[in-house]
Request: fold
Amino acid sequence: MSKVDIRRLAEELGISPSTVSRSLRDSHEISESTKNRVRALAAALDYQPHPYASGLRKHKSKTIAVVVPEVANNFFSRVFSGIESITLANNYHVLIYLTHESYEKEVSFIHHLKNGRVDGVIMSLSSHTKNFDHILSLQAADIPVIFFDRICEEIDTAKITTNDFESSYAATNLLIHSGCKRIAHLTTSLHLTTTQKRRDGYLAACRESNLPIEPELLIHENTEEETEKKLTALLSSEHGADGVFAAVEKLSLITYKVSKVLNIAIPDQLKLIAFANTESANYFSPSLTTIVQPAFEIGREAASILMNHLEKKRLPIPNSIIPIAATIIERDSTKS
Amino acid sequence: MSKVDIRRLAEELGISPSTVSRSLRDSHEISESTKNRVRALAAALDYQPHPYASGLRKHKSKTIAVVVPEVANNFFSRVFSGIESITLANNYHVLIYLTHESYEKEVSFIHHLKNGRVDGVIMSLSSHTKNFDHILSLQAADIPVIFFDRICEEIDTAKITTNDFESSYAATNLLIHSGCKRIAHLTTSLHLTTTQKRRDGYLAACRESNLPIEPELLIHENTEEETEKKLTALLSSEHGADGVFAAVEKLSLITYKVSKVLNIAIPDQLKLIAFANTESANYFSPSLTTIVQPAFEIGREAASILMNHLEKKRLPIPNSIIPIAATIIERDSTKS
Reply:
């Protein structure tokens, strides 16, 4: 079966392609009877306008891009579901790009999004991004960009985050109130404002309670292997640690693993709290006390701001940080 | 800064847009010196050809669609990562559509992919899809489709799956060899060939060992709430069950939950094995014995077949089921 396009409709009706095209656009230059014949055949043959032809005409692709470090991750996959709930309702298509924490990939993706493939971008920075020229050039090309979670504060746009400082401060205090005296902080790259704020919340709570903040308690490695090595060294050392605050979900799994290997009982000898969006936290051994980011809501908020800007309302994008509060769920891993 | 397009290049150089366009296509009608001036300015202004204009010319969008039930799911998010590893290497863009198990959404998405937005589709069916006309009409529009996991056997194309029957048969036998006499099977919709084959593997192993197959042991509900209710009724009943084979990851969490509520000890009173791709299986209480589908490899295989067909090699898409074997990882939840 040949593709149903303007040419095919024109042939079957014995009229010119431009008459078909103008009929479908409801042009006043075409008689009602011709328009009706064209519409009837278009419906009968299930004619679909070529999406990119229509994109060229209207300068609107009805497509957005989501640029994230990865998708096999409970936080990012839930944010994506939130974004999708809004794009679906607005009949937008969504391209997804995974940076795998590579600045070079991020730059390359953004570069290819500048000329009309998408109407807007929602993104969370790679952990190695320190230069933001690629984002500025995207904005210069009139493609709006909205940040979530891993944001760039210097760029004028909406940035949806969690209350990272406050929730980290509260999480650290929860460990302190459960009796911890030497709390380790596990995180990844400290280039990101997100991880910096979580570390700052931890530091503020420790300082306030006069807890030691020694270099070996602050573990911020780029790979899981290095984190595991450093945590093993810390927990095997003379002073060790009696609490762990993991700023990233996967680092809580490393803490379970190392504790098991070293035969350290959670929560009796070591208490643990972590930023995590896994549904299984309740079934861990012991169950994991979590700081849960409102991932779905973050995605929904980012997409709503973008859709309100692109669609009929044409609302401006606010230049502000929009925090949505995280929730701490206490379970056995922090029991006194 | 105005967008850098053909018109802008033409204005700056004082030549016609069509001369610019032909220069960029390296037409023999244009002099080398003009072509060089155009190329130099295009490079200097970082000119990017409009992706859809180029798509119209070549009838290639360099874009594929991935249509899946959801993405906040360890199996589908890992398959997506496998797909992305191949599309990235081939410079393809990826649109993603979530059906949320709705047949109507699936039909609507496929309908909008028929006229040029994508060059091919990789999909896993919604659990309510029983009619396949939408897939046939996609193929009729010359858009190739590749299935994975939740496949339609009647449609001519490549279908990447796990060895569902064999791995389910082996998983059930593992429970039997650990001493189970009454094994429950938890699954979702039985419309899908995937879930049917997993059930059949379970039934074959039970029959072979003369274990009872009573209706209350076969729980196949559409919602988690209903599954929880039925499992609670079964485990509270006189004969109960001493083993559970969960065909879907989330149903293993329900089993942990119900056992906790009813104070049934895993593995002493109830053994549990499940299809699962979670990284945390090792940290569950007790750790979970899993049947691990090679999710990343499934995605990679599906995308490789599609890319080999769309790109230079133009290889035909094999009309066959391509199973990639799952691996059983024994942990504490099935210990004798």
